[in-house]
Amino acid sequence: MVICNPSTGQSLTLPKVKTRRIDVTSFFGYDPIDKQFKVLSMTWSRCGRTTEQHQVLTLGGTGKLSWRMIECSLRHYPQSDGICINGVLYYKAVVYEFERYGIVFLL
Q: Domain F-box associated beta-propeller type spans what residues (predicted)?
């Protein structure tokens, strides 16, 4: 995965997500509180209908870039691109516990 800024020509190659799965969905956002860009990557279960692992990569720090696992207690399947507002990522998803659509948000 590469993040590019076409106006400056700069790019950054991200480390590989720690997973054996091939299906990965990623979202990009900005946390104004910590003044850092973050990438959320989700891998899919074998059936491909629910997210399995959630990992976050924080950009702009002084150390080595590395993914960290986060817990998500809702089995869900994203249905839209996300939007990051004030450091919170929002996206539409099917939430299986409620058997309906919902808005998922991750801090």
A: 2-103
